[in-house]
Amino acid sequence: MKDLALREHLLYLLNGGGAHLDFESAVADLPSDLRGKHAANIPHSPWELVEHIRLCQWDILEFSINAEHVSPEFPDGYWPKSSGPPDEFAWEKSLSQFRDDLASMCRLVKEPSTDLFAEITHGDGQTILREALLVADHNSYHLGQLVAVRRGLNAWPHD
Fold it and tell me: Which residues pair with 127 in a beta bridge?
């Protein structure tokens, strides 16, 4: 019973529950002409933040499930090369990949055969529990930044 409660709590966090903002709300209805813009005193554009959380989430997921995975070079491999998406397709592809990887992490957490506390065999003491919490925390932090950017660009409709 405790195992199920922990899994449900992790899924709640991963999907933007509680004090966490959900991804869909953060990216909803962002005008395409603002995706590569910077707001005053904020170092990242919406595109940079979306791509960063996508890349990091993908890396954490792959590390969690694939002993052969090689992480990108830090820090450059975790940020896009340009401040804006090259086109609408790149934006939509990034959103889709983020959603797919989040769903995969949720399936991993939800799977009863996944031992949340067992050390990942190719890691250095990491567990699936730690990696799931890392995804939730990292996404939450940068989605909060995305809201700040959108506010600075007058593109946050929830105020």
Answer: 119
Q: Which long-range CB contacts under 8 A does 27-32 form with residues at least 24 apart?
A: 27/95, 27/146, 29/157, 30/150, 30/155, 31/155, 32/88, 32/91
Q: Which one-letter amino acid corresponds to residue 110?
A: K
The identity of residue 18, as a single letter, is: G
Which pair of tokens denotes residue 80?
């896009």
Q: Which CATH class is domain 2-152?
A: mainly alpha
Residue ranges covered by each domain of the chain: 2-152
Q: Cα 12–18–22 angle (5° rounding)?
A: 70
Distance CA 88, CA 104 (A): 24
Contact 63, 69 (CB under 8 A): yes
Q: Where are the beta strands (DSSP E) in the chain?
A: none
Q: 64: helix, coil or strand?
A: helix
pTM comes to 0.95
Query: pLDDT tens across 13-64, in order?
Result: 999 988 878 999 999 999 999 999 999 999 999 999 999 999 999 999 999 9
Contacts of 43 (CB under 8 A, 6+ apart): none
